[in-house]
Each structure stands twice: as structure tokens, then as C-alpha cells.
Amino acid sequence: YFTYPKTRYKECPLLYELQCWNAIPRYPPIDERYGGYTGVFTALLKASANALNKPEQLDPENGLVISKWDIVNTNNYPNLDDIDAVLLTGSKHNSFEDIPWINRLVEFTQQVLAQNRVRILGICFGHQILGRAMGAKVGRSDQGWEIAVCDMELTEKGKEIFGLEKIRIQQMHQDIVASLPQGVTLLGHSPRCAIQGMYAPRRFISVQGHPEFTEWMETEIIQTRAKTGVFNEDLAQDGLSRVGNEHDGVAIGTAFLKFLLEE
Q1: Does the residue 82 lie in any domain?
Q2: How far apart are CA 247 and CA 148, in angstroms?
Q3: CB 106: neighbour CB atoms within 10 A?
Q4: Does a structural domain hold residue 109?
Q5: Catalytic (active-site) positions
Q6: Which CATH number is 213's domain given?
Q7: How far is CA 87 from CA 61, 124, 219, in A?
């Protein structure tokens, strides 16, 4: 989960993060390099803030304040009056599961959607939770896993928001948002996933892929899942053959920051 800068209320913009901390699978090499998953998003957002190059609105070094929340084991959530935006992150869990902490997460997301100040960013599992909170069907894709760098064909609104004709993004999912919620704008699609991004002005923006993943991170995950039998050899080798392709993670992160900063 994430939250965003109170630029409309404070001279110094702040970015808070509400993260599905214990929902995310732990990869020791990633923990060692980044200090945990919070560090992964910190790296992306700092790079994106530098690319945005608007220090008067968002200082890349001092304008990002990140907090994490254990919503799996403690069921603690922030008061909406204390935050400005929420980032729903990826997870090892299934967004469609009928279990207490995921149901509570869906309820919290609905509470955020019911007001008009706090904004939402959704990534992978978070994209799916956002869809579920709005009544969309979420579940396993009949196309199987989508992994490594893949093309995301953009709609006209997607091209406008991301400033690109097409996006390349690291993927790591087998679950999807299967139907577009009413009143929501589609941002893009791929052969394996019809709803790759969703948007509503000043309310939320989401992508199915992982703009925060680097080549090294994606490689670690693919190799780990191949060793544990989650991925067969053909799938793993196909992913590893594309994992080093150029991708647009920072461009996506920059678009997210623009969305959060816009009046």
C-alpha cells in the first residue's frame, strides 16, 4: 500500500507508503540488497522523482517519507485523515481468496474509494484488489503465467498518461482482473491479460505489471520459482531470455507521481 504527498496542504510534499509487508514473499538476496521490499519502492520512487525533475513539488531525496504496515498479522490500518495516498503492492497471495485479512483489505480499499482526497496506486496484487473492491471479477488467467519483460499495448488514455506509445514492463502474475469496473478507464492490455491498467482521475491508477522490478530482481524470482517447481523449465527459460530487455519502470513511476501531484 502507498500514500501520497500532501502538496495541497504542506509546503514540503510527503509520500507515505502503506505496504502489504508480510504478504510479500521474502527473497533474502533482495532483502540484503534493498533492506526489504520498502527499499525496492524507495529506489523506484527516488529514480522517478529525479526523472520528474520538479524539486519545487517533490524533492527526490527528502520529499519521500515511507511507512509500512503489517496488515496480515496485525490487521492495523492507518487513519485516512493521516495519509494522502495508498500504494497497494504485489503479494504472494491470491487476490480472490475469501480469507479475513484479504477481505479486510478489500473493505479498506472500498473506504478509500468512498472518499475523494486519498488516492490509490495499485501494482499487480494491488491492481487486482482495487478491481475486486469495485466489483470486478478477479481470478486465475486461462492464459497462464505472464513473466519477465512484456509489451503493454496502451489505449489513448494510457498513451496520454505514460507519455509513450507502448510500455514494456516486468511481469510476474497468473491472476488477473477479468472485467473492467463500471466507470473505470482502461489504460492498456497484452495478449495474456486484457486489463493491464486502470485509471480514474484524481482517484486511482494501477498496473498489472511490476515497474519496481529490476532485471536482477526478476531473475532472482524466476530462478527461485524454477528451483521450487512453481515454474517449469520452458517457462523459466523463456522468462530469463527476456528479463534483461529494456523496460519502462521509471517512466511508469514518474506517471504515478504526476498523478499524485496533480490538483
Answers
A1: yes
A2: 10
A3: 16
A4: yes
A5: 124, 210, 212
A6: 3.40.50.880
A7: 19, 11, 24
The residue length of the chain stands at 263
Please report whether residue 37 resides in a domain. yes
Cell of 7: 502538496
Give Cα 64 distance to the centre of its chain.
17
DSSP three-state, residue 121: strand
pLDDT digits (tens, 9 = 90+) for 215-226: 999 999 999 999
Q: Which residues pair with 120 in a beta bridge?
A: 86, 204
Q: Cell for 137? A: 471479477
- Count Cβ neighbours within 10 Å for each residue of 2-38 and write b for 16 or more, e otherwise: bbbbbbeeeeebbbbbbbbbbbbeeeeebeebbebbb
* Residue 23, pLDDT score: 55
Residue 182 lies in a domain: yes
Helices (H) and strands (E) in the chain, counts: 8, 9
At CA 229, angle to CA 224 and CA 233, rounded to 5?
A: 85
- Contact (CB, 8 A) for 64 and 15: yes
Identify the three-state secondary structure at position 130: helix
pLDDT 10s digits, 163-172: 999 999 999 9
